[in-house]
Amino acid sequence: MSLRLSTVILPYRRWHEGGRSAWMRAEQLGFHTAYTYDHLSWRSFRDGPWFGAVPTLTAAAAVTERLRLGTLVTSPNFRHPVTLAKELISLDDISGGRITLGIGAGGTGFDATALGQDPWAPRERADRFAEFVPLLDRLLTEDAVSYEGNFYSAHEARNIPGCVQRPRLPFAVAATGPRGLRLAARYGQAWVTTGDPKLYENGTPEQSVHALRGQAEKLADACAAIGRDASGLDRILLTGFTPDRGRPLQSLDAFVDFAGQHQELGFTEIVIHWPIPDSDFAADEKVFEQIAMEAPAQLR
Q1: Sign (positive/negative) of CA torsion 69, 75, 78, 81?
Q2: Cα–Cα distance between 3 and 297 in angstroms, integer?
Q3: How many whole angstroms separate alpha carbon 169 and alpha carbon 255?
């Protein structure tokens, strides 16, 4: 299988001051999917401009025709399944069925406290995620849903006519732990990872590849446990968070070497960040565009 190449465009620019042109350029460059982060703010961008994911993707859908669009990733930190489902069905309709929902359990960043709550403990995040995903699955596939859970409820929630994509838009489930991997196996059309965060500061690329191989094996085990063929689940690597950091974007050859190593691990999609000057995602735009246009042919 050919390796798909996608990008993630952070929503930090006003739409008419570079935001719009980036999404249009992503389609021109031939990316498979252009994602955006679904955060209220994020790390070093907290004190600068930052726009909402769903309106941004809606606008992107209006200025593109073929490019798939999605979130990397949405989490329960400030989302509720009932309202999220309505937005996703609308977005899938507007885009003509081009939406992928990247979804994860969330973390302890700014999103976790922006609504005034204390950050959830890891166990509560996992518990909420385990309830959030199945309920969202139902809301996107059934006309009316009622549900009473420990964390989320729905009372005769209507979602007619449902998604353009049937039975619903695809889920790309971000997970590394056993509970999250079980959710990816059961509900995901794709699995997402950024690698092992413990290796980011002092690990080596070789250690990262070994860790990713281990994650993929655990995913296969989770699939086997429910009788699912793991080969039918796409595997997405969001780059920029492994010990390689920005090195794969330094040249076409460096990227092809990096991507080829991960293709051998079974990854079907590599996601690279759209260059942002003076940030962790700084990169030469000419090299970035060369990678977008030439790397996929070398990875077939």
Answers
A1: positive
A2: 9
A3: 30
Residue 41 CB contacts under 8 Å (≥ 6 apart), including other chains = 50, 110, 111, 114
- For residue 200 the two structure tokens come to 């980011």
Other CB atoms within 10 Å distance of the CB of residue 123? 9
pTM above 0.85, yes or no: yes
Q: Which of 10, 20, 86, 67 is CA-nearest to residue 42?
A: 10
DSSP secondary structure, 34-70, as one string: EEE---S--GGGTTS----HHHHHHHHHHH-SS-EEE
How far from 111 is each of 78, 106, 136, CA to CA, in Å? 7, 8, 20
Amino acid at 18: G
Region for residue 27 given its phi and psi (left: phi exceeds 0; alpha: psi -120 to 50; beta: otherwise) = alpha
Distance CA 158, CA 139 (A): 8
Tokens found for residue 72? 């990397």
Burial of 45 (0-12, 13-18, 19+ CB in 10 A): middle
DSSP-H helix ranges across the chain: 20-28, 53-63, 81-94, 122-141, 178-187, 205-225, 252-264, 285-298
- One pLDDT digit (tens) per residue for the chain, 300 residues: 689 999 999 999 999 999 999 999 999 999 999 999 999 999 999 999 999 999 999 999 999 999 999 999 999 999 999 999 999 999 999 999 999 999 999 998 889 999 999 999 999 999 999 999 999 999 999 999 999 999 999 999 999 999 999 999 999 999 999 999 999 999 999 999 999 999 999 999 999 999 999 999 999 999 999 999 999 999 999 999 999 999 999 999 999 999 999 999 999 999 999 999 999 999 999 999 999 999 999 998
CA distance 35 to 15: 16
